[in-house]
Each structure stands twice: as structure tokens, then as C-alpha cells.
Amino acid sequence: MGREIVIGLVGKPSSGKSTTLNSLTDANAKVGAFPFTTIDPNKATGYLEIDCACKRFNLQDKCKPNYGFCRGGKRGVPIMLLDVAGLVPNAHLGRGLGNKFLSDLTEADCLIHIVDVSGTTDAEGKTTRGYDPLNDIEWLQNEIFQWILGNLKERWGSVRRKHIGTKQTTLETLRQQLGGYVANTQKIAQALDRIPNLPPLEDWDDEMLERVVRAFMDVKFPTVLALNKIDHPDADKNVSKIILKYPKSKAVLTSSITEVFLRKLAAQNFIKYIPGTEFVDTKEDIPDDPNLKPMDEKLLNRIESIRDLVLYRFGSTGVVQLLQAAAELLQLVPVFPVRNINSFGGGSGGGDAIFRDCILVKRGTPVVSVARKIMGDVTIAAIEGVGGMRVSEEDTVDIGKNDILSFKVVPGGRN
User: Which residues are in the OBG-type G domain (predicted)?
Assistant: First the structure.
């Protein structure tokens, strides 16, 4: 059984990390049983919004997920979030909760770095004006780099001697040294492949060791930059500066406090709001809607301000797009296992409900690995795709390809 995908949220104090976490883990979105068997105090369930398979067949009214939600063909798939605490300068030296912060990071498959682009909080999260948020991005990357590099350098002499004495491959030696960061052989190999003309490990100098650590970080900790507080007047110049400095980084413009506010108003029936979009309707917009409550002038003015400063300018608050950006970095594909490939029913007492389950796997994953992730180590008799087409165990999944599957297990075939 494969481990769950974990997305880590990091950010200095007062950057908006807690607000962003609250908006990503909106309790109002949950239906059905809880999807994860254990949740540590610093873990939570977020919801990755995707196009549900029910929409392809115009069967939205029958879609009732066991976990998460489906609203008009937009599905919220549960995904594990890790709230990484203790982010302060010199964390790698053990300052603050530095050791806990860095060890927590190892669980994450991807990071979302909440950056305060208003420039109104300094490196410690204290109120200021004119702070350069570029410092926060460089500082986070440097903390992780110095931590991994320091751990390697501390024992590099003995590592090198053992490598020569045992005649291991570079990959084998690095797997022993970097496996503790929850990195498998494939990830370490990907990191080494990023370095052209890599010399033998015994010939590495300090500069080469640093290049290897940087390459490993890129593979192990792909990062989405959440450029938060975009409604502040100083945000534009800082956003431009960051995007110019990091053109290859995946950056999402966000206003998490706006998202939390809009969802709160929607839950109280003051507005109709579609998360991830610019669409907000009040009683004044649709007076015939009996479910909407009227708002006072102060609240109406605030909605108009939100529309002008955030929604109409940027198209949304950006919060929904954060997990979508992380999923793109991780190349995640939603797969819908069903019991009946013709009706798309999922059993579990759901009557005629369809597409009850959805799991996230990496693009290119063999179909047999998907089966094992769902059912454990079983003997597969047959695999069917849409229309009853036979699917090979070696076939791979992609968006819209082999993503609706029915597995037939040999009776008594659990190993």
C-alpha cells in the first residue's frame, strides 16, 4: 500500500499561513466518513478541486463521494496537509523549533510557501513597512539547503571511505545517506540525472556536493509560491520582483483572508460564492432568491471592495488554485475505481450512487500499482476500463486515460 501524498505548508509568522490552512481545510466541505485513519495534531485534510468523471457522462446528480464532495461536477478530493511550524531564521542551527520544523519537512512531497508580498512583516513576522519578501523565499531555501548539506558534510569523510572500500555505486551510497529524508531510489536518481558529467563520488569537492544537494532539493521539495495579501497596495511591485527573480517557479497570487471571509458569508447565506472563481452574488444581485439574506451598507461596501481589489483584478482569491498548482508539480492524476464499469457504481451501500471513490496517483503509474494502492497485495483476475475494454496491468494512467477502472480479484487471491 502506497503512503498518502503529503503537502507541507510553510511560512514565517503573520504571513497568512494559518488563514490559508483554514481556507484549504474548510470543514463545510466535508461529507461522509473521514478519509485518513490517523491525523496528527499538525496534519489536516485539504480538498483538491478537480473535474469529476461524472461530468463527462452528464451524471452529476448521481455522484455521491464517500469522501470529500462533488458539486455540479467539481469534485473536492481529500489530500493530506502538513502544517510545518517553527519557521524562523537559522532554523537549521536549532533556533526556535528549528529541528522539529526541518524533520517535519521530510514527510512532505511538495511545499506551499506562504509569502507575505505586502512587505508589512519582517523576517520574524513583526509589523513593519517596506520589507522585501524576496528575502523570505531565499531564506527558506537556504535553511533546507544548509540543513541537508550540514548533515552530509558532518560525516562525508567516513561516507567517502566506505564508498571506496565497498565499491558501491554513487546511487547506492546516496540512497543510504538521503533515504532518511523520505526519498526513494528513484527520486535520488532523478536528482543525479540533473547534473551533467557527474564525476565519481570519491572525486566530489565541496562545490559538487553543494550542486548535488541543490538538485536533490529540487526533486524532493518542489515548491509552490503562494504570494499572499495581494490586496495590499504594495503587493504589485513585490509580486513583479519575485516573478522576475524566479521565472521558473510556480507562483499563485492569493488573498487567503478574503477567501475565509467569503466562505463565512456564504455559510451564513449572505452571499452565493463559487470558490476558485470571481462570482459572488448578494440579495441585491438576485432579489428573488429566498435563501439569501439582505446585508447592511457596511457589508455591501466591503463586498464591492473585495470585488474590485481581488476578484475582478485576479479572477479569484487564488486559494483553490494553490492545491491545483501543487498537484501539477507532483503530476497527480485522479483515478476513479468502480465496482461496475457500466453503471460506475461503487458499492459500499451507496444504492445507485456513482464514482464513490477517487484516489490521486502520479501520472504514468502502472494500473497494477493503482490496484495495490487501493486493495493491497491481491491477485488481479481482470481490469476493465470504460465500455468494458480490457486494460493491461502494465498500462499507465493519465488524465482522461485509464482513470476509470474496475478491478476483478481472484477469489481468495489476497496474498
Answer: 5-274
